[in-house]
Amino acid sequence: MDEAEYDEFSVRLRGLGEASGDVDTGAPGPLLKDLRPGDAVTFTLWQDYVVAVAKDGRSQETADTP
Length: 66
Hints:
mainly beta; globular
């Protein structure tokens, strides 16, 4: 049986508490493709889920966006 091939797109947040861990963005753009290790980002929480990541005025929803 062949396994389905798929790409995984995520960003690893390194911070305190809910600001830590891998966040599935679902796609490479418009922001993820331009992020580099060590970039400072802003994230939006909804309940206990990161629903968006932003940098320099651009944002990208995550797979947890309702």
